[in-house]
Amino acid sequence: xxxxxxFLMNALFFILFLIQSTNLYAQDPxxxxxxxxxxxxxxxxxxxxxxxVFAPGTKTAWHSHPDHSVYALSSGKIQITDKGKPAVxxxxxxxxxxxxxxxxxxxxxxxxxxxxxxxxxxKPVKK
Length: 127
Known about the structure:
The chain has 2 helices and 9 strands.
């Protein structure tokens, strides 16, 4: 009986750990990466537009985005690591825009310049 209780307690702690670990990967960038995601410029039921300022050497915590676009206000070099994938280095060019599908990732400015971006998240349609 004591062995079963110990097993059940260990199983419960393991399940709680797994639940907490998945929450670490699904965080709002404004909350968990406020060192980079400086402010919300516009938010409504369809989109959220955020100002991002990424100093050299700065990295973000794991965070998630729905489908989103990124517009580069300045150039630089960034390393992006999507959940479950190897890191990718991107040379960001001022004036470029890109569309990205929903993702959980982290990022690091590996260049020598501050990168400024506008990130626009496209909110899922509510049914």
